[in-house]
Design goal:
four-stranded antiparallel sheet; TolA/TonB C-terminal domain; five-stranded antiparallel sheet; alpha+beta; 289 residues; globular
Length: 289
């Protein structure tokens, strides 16, 4: 699919989307075009039929979403099929909340390629006793190096939570930057954001599950998104968030069998999301239809 996003131009020029304050000599259109991405996170509700088919889909705030993107999401979601929802041994009609991430990347022909990249079902419930929830999560302060360079970005933390609710271990799974520069300086920014986030997260406390399938686990793994920006980021619904994606790290306590999902942007800041828990229905078909 094509859009008029023009990622490379937006990143190179700033355009209110990026704090592009590093030396211009460190930036080239070729570098940006190879790595730049844009994401648009949309939400809605899906009605699921007795056989797991999509009986209906409502896109939230449709009037704020570009028409071609809204139509693309409609067509994709209508092809989905879920594992039937069963209650008391019988399939039932169900309704679920969904968050959908559209991913835009510059194409070789100069147009942007847009895909339906990820989806998350259900939402964070602070009152849930089946999942890990937060007790105290002080917000990390903005790193001084990032302030000096004018860099901003988002960090996805992967946290190992013990049965006492304390943090056993934590890593920065991914750091996405909204700044363009040479790799050396960008790596310094990623390290500054990661270090500040991890050091703060080690003091966080959580509430362990007291019910549900995971209640007897020796520990739990949760994702917690952290955002650093100067209020220059356009996070309005139906708008593109443009960034340079960072490499993804793997936690030492995770096994190879525990596949990691790329949920950047789908998990709203302020929430705590269990890495191995199904918060909603199981999707059986490809996201893109």
């Amino acid at each position: 699919m094509r859009s008029s996003l023009c990622l490379a131009l937006a990143l190179a020029a700033g355009g209110g989307l990026l704090a592009a304050t590093l030396p211009a000599a460190a930036r080239t259109h070729a570098e940006v075009r190879r790595t730049a991405e844009g994401s648009m996170v949309l939400t809605g509700q899906i009605n699921i039929g007795l056989e797991g088919e999509v009986e209906g889909f409502t896109l939230d705030q449709r009037e704020k979403v570009p028409a071609n993107m809204a139509d693309f999401v409609d067509r994709s979601v209508k092809t989905w099929r879920f594992e039937p929802i069963v209650r008391d041994g019988k399939p039932v009609h169900a309704r679920t909340q969904v968050s959908i991430r559209l991913l835009a990347q510059p194409g070789v022909d100069g147009n942007d390629r847009v895909t339906l990249d990820a989806a998350n079902f259900g939402e964070y419930d602070q009152t849930s006793t089946d999942h890990v929830t937060s007790v105290a999560l002080p917000r990390p302060v903005f790193p001084s190096l990032a302030q000096d360079l004018g860099g901003s970005g988002d960090v996805m933390l992967l946290v190992q939570v013990g049965r006492d609710g304390k943090v056993m271990d934590v890593i920065a799974e991914q750091v996405n930057l909204r700044v363009v520069g040479d790799e050396r300086r960008m790596q310094k920014l990623r390290e500054a954001f990661a270090r500040q986030s991890v050091n703060t997260a080690r003091r966080w406390t959580f509430r362990a599950p007291t019910t549900g399938d995971a209640v007897d686990e020796p520990f739990w793994t949760v994702r917690v998104p952290v955002s650093y920006d100067f209020n220059e980021v356009n996070r309005a619904y139906g708008k593109w968030n443009v960034y340079i994606p960072g490499p993804r790290a793997k936690a030492s306590w995770r096994t190879a069998e525990q596949g990691e999902k790329d949920l950047a942007g789908l998990l709203p800041a302020g929430g705590v999301y269990m890495a191995d828990a199904d918060n909603g229905p199981r999707l059986l078909t490809p996201l893109g239809g």
